[in-house]
Amino acid sequence: VIPDVLLFRTTVNTGIVFGMFKPLATLFLVISIAAVPVIIGIFHSIRVHRWMMTIPLGLILGGTFGNMYDRVVHDGVRDFIYVKAIEWPIFNVADSVICVGVILLSFTLLFTKEEKSGELPEGERTIGENKQSEELHPSQPTDGTKERGDDAPQP
Questions:
Q1: What are phi and psi of 147, to 5 degrees?
Q2: Quick check: is 79 catalytic?
């Protein structure tokens, strides 16, 4: 792609990072399969849908699916991006998005605080909350009926 800097070289990695633990290829497939429902469970357990949690989890899940597909179809992960300028080991896009997702998730967990008062930050919604509940006046019941106020005309 860019001579002496960035090249495409195809290889199949049956291990994990930098080709380590090659004899445990089946275990890594099982871990990938188990990771998918765990990641989805974490996503659904989040009290508030924040983009700072959704994006990293989506990246990790997407990268996991990509590598899992390769392990099932090709008996290993297909790596093809080689940064020759720094002699970095060959990797793939799925590896990259998993790494970026883990870094973003780590920063989110380390440097953001959840509101302790139970109040949601501006623009945030709890899972399952919809616009209809926002449009109701505080004195209105949430079951879809309207209470009669003191100024309502009598029949």
A1: -80, 150
A2: yes
> pTM, whole model, 2 decimals?
0.69
Region 127-132 average pLDDT: 50
Rounded to 5°, angle at Cα 47 from 30 and 33: 10
Q: What is the pLDDT of residues 80-117, one digit of tens each?
A: 999 999 999 999 999 999 999 999 999 988 988 765 54
Listed in sequence order, the residues at least 6 apart from 24 whose beta carbon sits closer than 8 Å to its beta carbon are 15
Identified catalytic residue from 79, 143, 150, 151: 79
Q: Measuring CA to CA, which residue among 109, 108, 119, 77 is closest to residue 94?
A: 77
95 is known as an active-site residue: yes
- Determine which one of 95, 143, 150, 151 is catalytic: 95
Dist CA 109 CA 112 (whole Å): 6
